[in-house]
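Lab notebook, bench 4. Still working through the backlog of constructs that have no structural model yet. Next entry is a single chain of 192 residues. Request: give me the C-alpha cells for it.
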Amino acid sequence: MARHVFLTGPPGIGKTTLIQKVTQALRSSDVPIDGFYTEEVKEGGRRRGFDVVTLSGKRGPLSRVSSDSSASRREYRVGQYVVDLVSFEQLVLPVLRNVNHGSDSEKKICVIDEIGKMELFSQAFIRAVRETLTDPGTVVLGTIPVPKGKPLDLVEEIRSRKDVKVFNWLQVLRHWWTQKKHWTVDFHTGSS
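Model written out:
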C-alpha cells in the first residue's frame, strides 16, 4: 500500500502549483504539515534561477544563472544555473530534521518539492530524504523529474519503492481534459 505520493511531469506543467494548493487545503484543515517547495525567480520576464521556500515562509536561493562562463571548482552547475548548496542545506535540512524528529503518535505530512538534479548535489539532503521516507509517522508529498538522460539514483530508488505512488501530472491533466470535454459534450447534447 502506497503511503507516499510523488508527482512527476515536465517542467512548467503545474506540479509546484498543485503542491501549493494541496498544502493550503491541508493547512486549513489543521493537518500537521511542513516542508519546502521551489519557486522560479524571474527578472524582466526571464528566468534567473530558483528559490527554496519553506512552508514556514523562509526563502533562499537554490540557483541562479551564472554571470560568467568560467566554472569554479566549488561550483555545482545544472546547465546555465549555479546551485547555492549552502543556502539550500541551511533552509531544507532543519525542516526535514524537524519532521523526522517529531512525535510518532501523530502522522505528519512532509512536502518535498523537488528532488531533482540541483537538490541532489547535497549528500546530506539525500540522507535526510531517505530518513523521511522510512519514518513510519511521516507521509511525503513530493515531486520528482521525468526520466531524462542519465537516471538520478535517488529518484529511481523512490520510483521503485513499494510504499510510493508516482502520478504523472501530464497524464492526469490529459485524462481530466478528455473527461471534461466528454462531460461538456454530454451536457450540451443531453447524451449520457
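Notes after review: Residues 182-192 have pLDDT under 50 and may be disordered. The first helix runs from residue 15 to 28. Flag for follow-up if needed.
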